[in-house]
Amino acid sequence: MRNINLFFRRFVQDDRGTSAIEYALMATLISLAIVTTAGTAGTTLSGVFTTIGNKL
């Protein structure tokens, strides 16, 4: 039982993986921003090409 308590105490105090989690969250947010921007740009370009096609 003492080994289990010691393991959990060390696990809670260990912060070595914190940086990796923070980088993963930042990468996720950046990816989400890129996907959202690309989707908006794609919709806008589609409208532009539709307008040009209708005028031709």
Task: Write a structural description.
By secondary structure, this protein is an all-alpha fold. It has a domain at 19-56. The protein contains 2 helices and no strands. The protein has helices at residues 2-13, 18-55. The longest helix has 38 residues, at 18-55. The termini are far apart. The mean pLDDT is 86.
Task: Write a short abstract of this structure.
This protein has 56 residues and is mainly α. The chain is built from two helices and no strands. The protein has a domain at 19-56.
List the helices and strands and how they pair.
Elements: H1 2-13, H2 18-55
Main beta sheet: none
What is the H/E order? HH
Strand content: under 5%
> Could you tell me the mean pLDDT?
86
Rg: 24 Å
The outline comes out as rod-shaped
| Uncertain ranges | none
Helix content: over 70%
Q: What is the straight-line distance between the termini?
A: 80 Å
Descriptive tags:
2 helices; single chain; 56 residues; mainly alpha
